[in-house]
Amino acid sequence: MSAEHQPTADAALRFSVLGPLRAWRRATELSLGPPKQRSVLALLLVHAGRPVPLDQILDALWDDEPPEHAVNVVHRHVGALRRLLEPELTQRAAARVLVRAGGGYRLDVADGALDLLEFRGLREQAHAAATAGRPAQATGLFVRALSLWLGRTAAGLPRTARAHPVFAGVDAEYLHAARDAADAALAAGQTYRVLPLLRQAAESDPLNEYLQARLVLVLAAEGQSARALDHYQAVRSRLANELGVDPGPDLRDAQIRVLRGTVAPATRTHPDATAVTAASATTTVMATPAATAVAGGRAVPVALGNATSPGVRPAQLPADLYAFTGRRAELEWLRGLLPAGGGAPGAVVISAIGGAPGVGKTTLALHWAHRNAHHFPDGQLYVDLRGYDLTGAALAPSTALRHFLEALGVPGENVPPSLDGQTALYRSLLARRRILVVLDNARSAEQVRPLLPGTPTCLTVITSREQMPGLVASHGARSLRLDLLTVTESLEFMAKRLGEERVATDREAALAIAEQCGRLPLALAVVCARAEGRAAVPLADIAAELAESRDDLGVFAVGDPATDPRSVFSWSYRTLTPAAAGAFRLLWMCPPHGVSPQAVASLTGLTPREVGPVLSELTRASLWNEPAPGRYSSHELLRTFSQELSLAEDAPEAREDARRRLFDHYLHSARGAATHLYTHREPLALPPAAAGTQVVEFADTDGAAKWLAREMPALEAVITRDSDHGTGAHAWRLAATLELVLDRRGRREEQIALHTAALAGAQRLGETEGEAHMHRVLGFARIRTDDHARGARHLEKALELFTAMGDVPFTALTHRYLAFLANARQDHREALAQYKIACSLYTGTRAYVGIASVTNEVAWTRLLLHEYEEALEDCHRAVRIAARSGNRNIEAAAWDTMGVAHHRLNRPDEALEAFDRALAHYRALNDASLTADTLIHRGEALAVTSPGEARRAWDEALRILDALGHTDADTLRELLEGRGEDSADGRVGVRTPHTG
């Protein structure tokens, strides 16, 4: 902007064009008028301070040749904008903001009044700092610049205007700045500051190789090398599929640097030593209930970190339905929730959309949300609350809040533990932001109340089968009851999917189909999916088939048969092949989180070769879907229909056989994965898997770890379902198999809840072995939570049962757990006595892996007694026995203990060598939790001589624990933040090693 124009600008006006176009006069947001008027303003803003010729404005407003009166249209829009921007302007007075210039118009803005100019100023300062060799300062300036972006330039404009090259040019400035920010952050070792913003930029231009290469390098610098290589492969595949090209030199170079390990890791500055300056994008929320956590009985502020910067704009809405039709009255009703002027509401607005299952509540809510997203420039939040899931497991409010807080940029470690704290933090983050919140498939008012924003700038849309009168009374929610489609809407629905000509040709048949479907959208969708695949079949034939099937499943009808979808589903079901029909009847038994083809093959008794075509047939018929490659699930109504069909048509024995095969699939596959990962643990003896069960085989620890992570929701669902509604036989065996998997995650309360349910199932079944195992694992888990009294009672009961059964390996393991308890109680001599009993039992059965484990645990107890030389002798013995047995788990544990002993004896070289040996084993075993343990110990050994390297080890350990969602992450974080100058020994507190 030239200086001669600056004084005439109105300082009361502010504009935003980096994202949705917005304007304010002081604190009041302005309604910017119809689309073409908004387009004129946007074009003038991106040229702020410079004339825009009239012919350029005409090109932006019209695709083809402008109409005859186009110039007059532009003049009218300019006049309206002048009245809006300068309401005090008289008819004869000269304009000061929007003026004639250079054969067109020029818009003058004050300093700091346009985000685009602020962005460019910060970017230039950043480039100057980078050129001067100050990459950290450059990084901070780039972060501030990128944080101004809330979406594509002038988002929401008509397609014709938005396609003008000037807007694409501004978008390119953003992408170049993101690339340069990454370079500065890599040079400064501060990649954590740009990662969220760089991800956002990379997602906006997925084929930009320069930008994607920077994201690969930044991920690697953040210690996420595996994710960096996965991202490289994803970009490589996309380039091949969409452009038919291989990665260019930038991407290839980034991959090679990651593979060779030459990307310099980020060097985070200790928070206590970092001043929060204007160049920092970190946001700390202070002095509100939302932004405090309790530490040691006192409230402390929660620093939310870079991710809460204004650049994080959630956009979580699922895709809009391409064939949406009708619902005009409902859409207009929803439109009425927004103020007429387009500003923020004057009070909190909540809309509850109710209606029967399958009536289209979610589809309507999402379609309206997409159409009106531009009214909420700060983002959109969405969650499926699973209120009517077939398993009855509705999403807990705390889980939904954690999902929202992470989307808003709150690091997982900063999410408060209590529901009240999460709600308070959530509402504080939404204060003064314009965000749309969609709460889909809610069960009750109690479920949604913690998720409601507390600010009038946000709007909440809830879908539920219930009307929620409590919300209407307590929060003033406005209720919309969604009914069936009208006849006209039903015909439009079919025409959009089957083609207008086909519906118009046989309108009577189309009307009959609509009525036979009860004008229920879900039922119509199923019929149309089938009819699309039978284009040559007249609609009259389809209507006749529907009529013939109407009464076949009348036993399942509830209320008016005309609105019962079961007859429609039955018609679609009866067109399936016998194999697909049999599979559909059983699919309700699958966990709701999505299942693999192997799980479906086990459930149905089909071979892997047979199950693929069956799943494809069910997917084509819209009776099942594939939300992600190789993962299958279905709508709750279809799952209910599947269950009712099975109860009516399948013999109880057939259902029980299917259930057993499915549960055996998860049990035996989990045992294989756990055995791969934890070779030092005596595997649980299992009954043979039922015939037809598909058991996943694992080639390495990486595949085993990934399978367990992917299938953990299903495994937990099997434990819960079998404990509550099954025999209980699978529940306790699966819970025992997953003991170390659950222990390594550190989510103690979840682990205790699962094992308690499994114990109840074993007791109901009368299985002494199952009861013994559940008492054993519950005892250990209780000790982990410092509940020593209950832990002792569980272990004593387990010891009694295992001894009575003559089960030597698990009697020995229970003695080791009792030793763990004794150490937790600081009774180290009692711990040694328990270990002596365990070692005697292992020696009698020549269980060398057990002997090696006990020997290492004795060494750790010697450390607690400060008997360091004796501990080293035990460590060397444990390493020898483990190496002869080929057991890397115990060998790694012994090297780690040896490293701690050397460190306590002030032998740093020997300590580091031992820790490096332990890390090599743990990383090869994919044992993330114990890798973190050893990194903590390694950091302690380096703290005095190499504090920077020590900090990197501790930060890596913290990242691992955060990724696991481990409760020890908070403890480690507090210890690191509490270290002061007097911490001369470098100790941050040693985690007790995992027994077993």
Q: Can you offer a commentary on this structure?
A:
The protein is an alpha/beta fold. Helix content is 57%, strand content 7%. The protein contains 43 helices and 16 strands. The strands form 5 sheets. A 5-stranded parallel sheet has the order 11-12-13-10-14, sandwiched between helices. A 3-stranded antiparallel sheet has the order 1-2-3, with no helix packed on it. Helix 21 runs parallel beside helix 23 and helix 30 (729-737) packs antiparallel against helix 32 (748-765). It is globular. The termini are far apart. Mean pLDDT is 81; it is low at 1-8, 269-311, 551-563 and 980-985.
Summarize the structure.
With 996 residues, the protein is of the alpha/beta class.
Content-based structural category: alpha/beta
Radius of gyration: 32 Å
Number of strands: 16
Alpha plus pi helix count:
43
Helix content: 55-70%
- Unreliable parts: 1-8, 269-311, 551-563, 980-985
What is the CA-CA span between the terminal residues?
70 Å
Q: Report the average pLDDT across residues.
A: 81
Largest sheet: 5 strands, parallel
How much of the sequence is in beta strands? 5-15%
Indicate the multimeric state.
single chain
Strand arrangement, largest sheet? 11-12-13-10-14
Q: So what's the overall shape?
A: globular
